[in-house]
Amino acid sequence: MLNLFHRSQFIVLLLFAGLLLATGCSRAQDKAATPTPGPADTARQEDAGHHSEADEQPAEPVIITDSITVNGVTVAFSAAPFSVVPDGPTAVTEGEYALISFKLTDAETGESLSALHPSAWLAAQPDAADSDCQENIQSYLQGALTFRPEIDLNGYFILVMNNDASISVLDPTADVAGMTQLYDMVLLNRPGEDWLYRPDTQQLLVTMPGANQVAVVDGESFDISQSAAAGTSPTRIALAPDGQTVWVGNDAQAAAESGVTVLDAATLEIAAQIPTGAGHHEIAFAPDGATAFVTNSQANTLSVIDTARLVKVEDIEIGAQPTAVTAGPDGVIYAANAGDGSVVALDSATHEATAVYQAAPGIAGFWLTADGRWGFAPSPAEDKVYIFDTAAGNLAYAAPAAGAPDQVTFSDTTVYIRASEAPAVTAIPLAELGQADSLPVTTLPVGQRAPAEAAGRASAPAIFPVAADGAALVVNPADRLIYYYPEGAAAAAGSFQAHGRIPRAVMTVSRSLEEVEPGMYTAKVRMPQSGRFQAAFFLDSPQAAHCFTFTAEENPVYAASRADETPRVELVGEKRPLTAGQPYTLQFRLAQPRTAEPVSNLTDVQALATLPTGWNNRFAARPLDDGVYEATLTIPAAGPTYVYFAIPSMQLDFEDLSNVTFNTEAGDESP
């Protein structure tokens, strides 16, 4: 197992530099209780029409500022509402987005300090008592899941789409008792097929063909905030260029239901359902967003849709079994046909063919580089990838790609080609394209077994570039591992466990500060609760560290529902492995997320223990004192063990409360 801790040098500095000024940060729960996004915004939008033009002017925002100079570095901190609308909050407020900023300058010259990599964390302090800032930051850097802030503004999460209606959230910087990096688990209604992440709303949208829905997962709390109807068998998903609509391909059997469903991006309500033709549907947009192009693999057509009117305007007979469509930045649309191996280039304005590129029948799709020049069509039957030079209008290479290649992914420097029938990935440096008659091709080993040995490939990519590390993540479902490849390396640097699941697709979600202008590092966050917060800041070089304090105001939209808040679950005592076949006494505490007040004397608290084999059992929890509950678990076999909690009297099911992961070791296993 890989513990990717690219900030390990920070710990050394913490232990020996003695920089940190103890202004305090609080210990925080593993998972923040986060209100559902948007009700305040929705209410203000509904009321907006009832005010005069003069009333529509928003008030000036309240910006919290502070600064400190450490070792010649001035750190200017600010916390402000991300946006201010009429009748809306003017200060940092719970449930609303805030802009957290750190401006770094040279204390002597005033020059902005650019291209640095500061770390920051936001932690609540409900008791208003200062704690040891140095100790807390050291714990954050070490990645202990028993000591976490409400909001971590560093690195990224790894999201893994599994085959069993779940999404694993992995923290590559964390390690729990030396056995797992599982940060959270998202439980879907049905297995996911495709997904997209929206950084603007911090939402993950996941298609679930078996549920006829799209799940909306909050990118901060990793709770499901909505399951939206999305037509029959929703498979592929795409966001329109203007961000106003979400398009879903419906691979339905019935002709009237086979096509696309268009959802309003803000509400996820259905804006239109457009039949396009039989078969699988891929979706692409003209660069100006005025037109959408949808493949119909069984109808052998490419549908053209007016995105303003949401009506189909044309069906183009594009070739035999169109299985892919993609748009170039120059307005050229490319449709790939598996039946005859052709790739047809169309003008996105006139819909007329401008070129036809010929590969071989059975191509798995067509992928285009960001600049639109190079197109890749892998041929599983031939163990090769056809590479077209769209500028020259010809086939440039037919490069070897072992193991029935079926997917292509680009990083900034490398193209990765996934093999389905061999534990391998083909890597080609992008800089070498067009430089010679042949390409340097590297075959990277990916585990022990071919991905095809595990059933159920997803439409979502099995390879994902990690730009922050200059690396790539590669899923091998047969090995039940996610491999980590530094670019240029001949082998994986390590792997992440799938915790008994079969991983099908992978992506990363950034949680880092972003440098928006020289020396200005910011992050958009949704405040999980009201009250006092501390922003812990750490910079390794130049060396600077400090804890700033600010307050999030109470949101009146949520004030009325305080009694209905979901309690947080906290383990009591040290977390240790279980032994199969042996009773284990699990103690946990239920507390109010904002006040930390205990939730006591409930008589219907339940624990549900599960194993990846499908075994599960419910255990009653007994109330003790001070919000502590106790359940005795007996796990029949070794393996990752997931424990979920429910409180029927509060209408809280097992997916509503945070869960706990243990490792059950071999012992006297039950038959």
Topology:
Layout: H1 8-17, H2 39-47, E1 64-70, E2 73-81, E3 97-106, E4 119-124, H3 133-142, E5 151-152, E6 156-162, E7 166-170, E8 182-187, E9 195-198, E10 203-208, E11 213-218, E12 224-229, E13 234-239, E14 245-250, E15 259-264, E16 270-275, E17 283-285, E18 291-296, E19 301-306, E20 311-317, E21 322-327, E22 332-337, E23 342-347, E24 353-358, E25 367-368, E26 374-379, E27 384-389, E28 394-400, E29 405-410, E30 414-419, E31 424-429, E32 442-445, E33 463-466, E34 471-476, E35 481-486, E36 494-497, E37 503-510, E38 514-517, E39 520-526, E40 531-539, E41 544-552, H4 556-559, E42 568-571, E43 578-579, E44 583-591, E45 606-610, E46 616-620, E47 622-623, E48 628-634, E49 639-646, E50 660-665
Parallel strand pairs: 43-50
Antiparallel strand pairs: 1-2, 2-3, 3-39, 4-5, 4-40, 6-7, 6-37, 7-8, 9-10, 10-11, 11-12, 13-14, 14-15, 15-16, 17-18, 18-19, 19-20, 21-22, 22-23, 23-24, 25-26, 26-27, 27-28, 29-30, 30-31, 31-32, 33-34, 34-35, 35-36, 38-39, 40-41, 42-44, 44-48, 45-46, 45-49, 47-48, 49-50
Helix pairs in contact: 1-3
